[in-house]
Each structure stands twice: as C-alpha cells, then as structure tokens.
Design a protein that fits this description.
- The protein has ten helices and no strands.
- With about 260 residues, the protein is mainly alpha-helical.
- Helix 1 packs antiparallel against helix 2 and helix 3 runs antiparallel to helix 4 (about 55-65).
- It starts with a helix and ends with a helix.
Length: about 260
C-alpha cells in the first residue's frame, strides 16, 4: 500500500488531475489517510501541491481533509513554508485564510515562511498579512531582510559574471546564444534586482515610519506623564496652602478668644 501512497503523493505534484483522481480512488479502497507521508521525500500530498503551485490539486486535497499544519519530515516545514519558498503567492493567500495556519510558524531552523520566501525573492502577501514578520529572528539570529539582501547580492554577482562572459556565453547545446537572447537574460537579472531593491526600500521606509510613530507615541506618553506629575504637584501645593490657611485661621480665632 505504501507504493500506492507514494504514487498518489507524487501525482499531486503533477499537472495531471486525472492521475490524482485515479490514484486517490485506488487508495480509498484501502485503510489510508490523506496526510500520509511519501517514504522518500517525507512530504504529504498537500506539500507536493504547494511545492508546484497546483491550486486545483490543493483545493481537492483540502476537500478530502488534508491538514494545512502538518510538517515535512525533513526540515519540519509547513505547507506555508513550501508555497512561499516556491513563490506561489496564490496558495500562500489560500493558506493564510485558514484559521489553522499561523503566519509565524517556524521550521527546524526557526525560520518563518517569509525567511524561506526571501531566499527565492520575497512574498508581498506575507508582508502585507503580517509586517512584523520582517523582524522575526531564526536560530542564527537572521531576519528575512538578511536573506533578501543576500539574494540581491547573489543576483548582482550573477549579472556581473554574465556581462563579463557575454561574448563567450553558450547554452546547454553548445551553440552560441543569440545577442537578443543574451540581452534579454541580462534584463531579467536586472529586473529581479530592481524589484528586490524596491521591496527593500519600501520595507525600510515603512520601518522608518513605524519608528517615527513609535517615537511620537513615546514622546506623547512622556509629555502626559510630565503633565500628570505637574498636575499632582500643583494639587499638592494647593492642598498645602489650604491646610496652612485653615491652620492660620484656627490660630487667629484662638488668639481672639
């Protein structure tokens, strides 16, 4: 039966939905569970659907009771990690709609889905859902911003390399790549870099706004505290004056008597 489970899990990572339905119908005749693991990859069918961005397979598995908070055996990653790591924002949005999905969930390295998404680029969906993920630290004390900057640095190195080797660059078949194709490849590298730099600039701007707002909030709190202290001091002075006047009035009446 395990071979059938492996076949079903693999089918969920393929575009052939008929194969998914067929392997699923065969497994329904046995005692199995939709969250069963593949013996080699350590993934469930839902993990595979998330890895390949197959929304139809994803929805089908949810209907069959697939768990959205089940981890992989290797790396202890949730479906959210896998969808984010492969840049499948459509599935990330679907997962975040579930009450059983925690955007702050971490894998065996203490990394959130935004950490792993940053290795491939970045997930605007995760940032918009919970901007505070930007400040989350993994077990190596690294934030998602660290991974984004590393990604930019790697892309810049690749771009520089391909520019320097442009005249000698060959494709896998050994034939020279046409000039237009080479320029297009370099443009794609540059676009990816510009997009990530734009994301970094947006995030840093938002962080700056947050820090200013926090500074303003702390300033307001301090001003209110000082105002309260001054008010209490004035009240105490007025009470002291009132007691002094009352004491002097009593002494004057005794003197008159």
């Amino acid at each position: 039966m395990q071979n059938m489970i492996n076949e079903f899990v693999e089918a969920c990572g393929e575009k052939s939905f008929s194969k998914v339905r067929y392997t699923h119908s065969q497994l329904r005749k046995t005692a199995w569970h939709v969250n069963s693991y593949h013996t080699v990859t350590g993934r469930t069918a839902l993990h595979e659907a998330c890895a390949h961005g197959l929304e139809r397979n994803f929805r089908f598995l949810l209907q069959e009771g697939a768990s959205v908070d089940q981890r992989t055996i290797l790396g202890r990653q949730y479906p959210l990690h896998i969808a984010a790591a492969n840049g499948n924002d459509a599935l990330v949005r679907l997962l975040l709609r579930s009450e059983d999905v925690d955007a702050k969930c971490v894998d065996s390295h203490g990394r959130t889905a935004l950490h792993v998404a940053a290795t491939a680029g970045v997930s605007q969906t995760l940032i918009e859902h919970n901007f505070m993920l930007i400040f989350s630290l993994d077990k190596s004390a690294q934030t998602p911003m660290t991974f984004i900057r590393k990604k930019v640095a790697n892309l810049q190195k690749d771009l520089q390399y391909h520019r320097s080797k442009m005249d000698l660059y060959q494709n896998d078949t050994g034939s020279y790549v046409e000039e237009e194709t080479k320029h297009k490849m370099l443009e794609e590298y540059q676009k990816s870099i510009d997009d990530l730099l734009g994301v970094i600039a947006t995030i840093e701007e938002r962080i700056t706004v947050m820090r200013r707002a926090e500074a303003t909030r702390k300033k307001d709190i301090e001003e209110r505290r000082r105002a309260n202290v001054q008010k209490k001091m004035q009240e105490q002075e007025e009470k002291a004056k009132a007691r002094w006047k009352a004491d002097m009035a009593r002494k004057y009446r005794r003197f008159r008597q």
